[in-house]
Model the fold of this input.
Amino acid sequence: MTAKAKYQDVLDLGEALNIKDGNVTEENGILKVKGEAKTQYEKNLIWDKIKEIGGEKPTDILANITVADTSVYHRHTVKSGETLGKIAKHYYGNASKYQAIFKANSDILKNPDVIYPDQELIIPNL
Done:
């Protein structure tokens, strides 16, 4: 199995995330991946997928993923039924971090219990 075939799920994820300036080459069994993610969260998704496939320190892939917007962790569009706690749990693994999201969006949110579908929220770097 070629390295490209092995890491096809990583390449598919990069495509789904619209990674900019993507470049993939394979040399001597090593897959070289380059591109720019919109946010740190998206970069982390790519790296998590790489580690899921290749282990904690894979030797058959070299990835150089940069981040376009380092001022935020991510930008999230609220879906029906979501709460700040659910959003915080998704991004930070801890629902009680909802306060950081509320504070970062205090210009559009007046109450942490009231958010609406299609609002775009800043998910701050912690």
